Amino acid sequence: MEFENGQSIYNQIADNLSDKIINEEFKPGEKIPSVRELAAEVGVNPNTIMRTYTELQSKGIIENKRGIGYFVQSEAPLRILEERKRNFFERILPQFIKEASQLGISPEELKKHLNL
Description:
Elements: H1 9-22, H2 35-42, H3 46-58, E1 62-65, E2 69-72, H4 76-102, H5 107-114
Helix pairs in contact: 1-3, 2-3
Protein name: Transcriptional regulator, gntr family protein
Keywords: DNA-binding, Transcription, Transcription regulation
GO molecular function: DNA binding; DNA-binding transcription factor activity
């Protein structure tokens, strides 16, 4: 996994796992890799993965079944999509509109490129 600057590694790993859940690589109720397995796979310290899993647990995306491992929650895909939509409308869209305005792009020009 390639990491980018500007966002913490544990958040990038959480986003990657969330992508896999949305794309049904990990389905609700399915076991995900252990902390050690994922740490070895992505080449990070197990503490980083533990932080990732703690964050995903707090959002209700995964759950820990003690002694068995971590599993995808039944509502995980919906929760991920809701959070990403909220992020889009609160952060990405306002920045997009600001940028378009600064560039002098008209609503008509935007509409043409958005295929609406």
